[in-house]
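Record 1 of the preview.
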Amino acid sequence: MNTKYSLFLVFLALILVSGCQSLIEDPKGSLTPGTYFKTQSDLDASVAAIYIQFARDGAWGFTNRSTSYFGSDDFTTDPGLNKEDFRLFDRLSGGSGNGSLVAQWQGPWQGIYQANNVIANYTKVGSTDVLKNQAAGQAYFLRALGYYYLVRTFGPVPIILTQIDVNDRPPRDPVDKVYAAIISDLQKAKELLPISFPNQPGKANQMAARSLLADVYLSMTGWPLNQESNYKLAADEANSVMQSGVYNLNTPYATVFTTNNSSESIFGFQYNVSGGLPLRSAGSSSVPLDEIATNGSSGWDDYYPEINFYKNAPKCSRTDATFYTTIKLRQPDGKTFKLVSWDSPETHAGHPYYKKFRAGLNGDGVSETETTIDAINPSTNKVYDVIRYPQVLLIYAEASAMAAGGPTTASYSAINQVRKRAGLPDLTTGLSATAFRDAVVYERAYEFAGEFGVRWFDIVRLQLLPQIVAARSSAENPIPANTNFAQKYLAPIPVNEMSRNPGWTQNDGY
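->
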């Protein structure tokens, strides 16, 4: 691991002005620690730089942030083209030399280092305690977020909570200690952050910290910790967000993916194409290679769902808004399009795609009508929602049921809110705790289909790979015989990080 704390490059600092995100150049965002924390604007610039580290293209701004999550059934990729990095993990065959895996490792670490910088220095600023605490609270939240993705993706990782020397080579800490550090940071974030930042979208608030903490506790109930006592803690944290009344599901499902900062957005990374920070996992990335717009732009075929994942989806309006099943093939005149089904032999992949990631922000990704495509763009201004309110409702539903030994009226109410917005009837009553949990996991799979590891992490904590692979269509990228599924729940540490840290032991199977 590269333990140099100062960042290698001067990144654009993200400044929230008048409730909107804009990007201006501010070198204070990445200076050496201790040299610039004098004013509140200095502190704000450094906090903004943490968000940049997570959101940039080499971290979570592009599809490679999900490279090792392609083992999930809501993700697959082209059998050819330049998709080898994704395809290997889709086949449960990825290795430590995979170039795209670096974004999953390095992106969170860069954010963690910058957060450490803020936490170490924020008290030195000449400002009010309220403003300083709000800045520190965001840093604690973001550091916890980074570690949460690292520990679930790679297992044991070093816990680095202070500034360290470039030559230090800390050991990997056990998973339970990493989770303890995450919980500590989120508890601190809860103390320091306000319930909301009015008219300032993109800033992590107390409800974001509570929501993430609920998710953390739920993850701890499953593999590898299996701490079932955390079900109640997960339910309590989720319930606190529900009782706040800040969020709701009043925004139609499809609209959530074509507008920014909807009524259910609890925390999301903000993007700005003109400012040099585009989201590139919407638009072209999720569009078929077969589709060519009238202006000559085409899809990239990076990711789409597995066939049986699509076929097993519930029949509802949410499913209609989620999946793209009619492919538009441009005709020789360059102006008209032939509409064919996803499984038509005229398509090279023979798969459905994701509709909800096509448009970007009101069509800045794919600009189209029902029968034509005008342009397909790879860079969008769409916010990437890391935490949406339906996740809180489903965490509460599952956790409250498992904590009580069976679903309560409140458990059913939580999942049924999600189902109602999806266009589904209420869930059947009288289910056992396990059957209810499985219903929630199924609901989460389709509510969050294709969204940044949500499905994969359910597969990991519940050890579902054997079932997922057994249900896989023969048309998918083949998984080698005798694959040891138990060794595929963690990704390998990137080879360059292993070479920098000779005292580390690589994850099993790699």
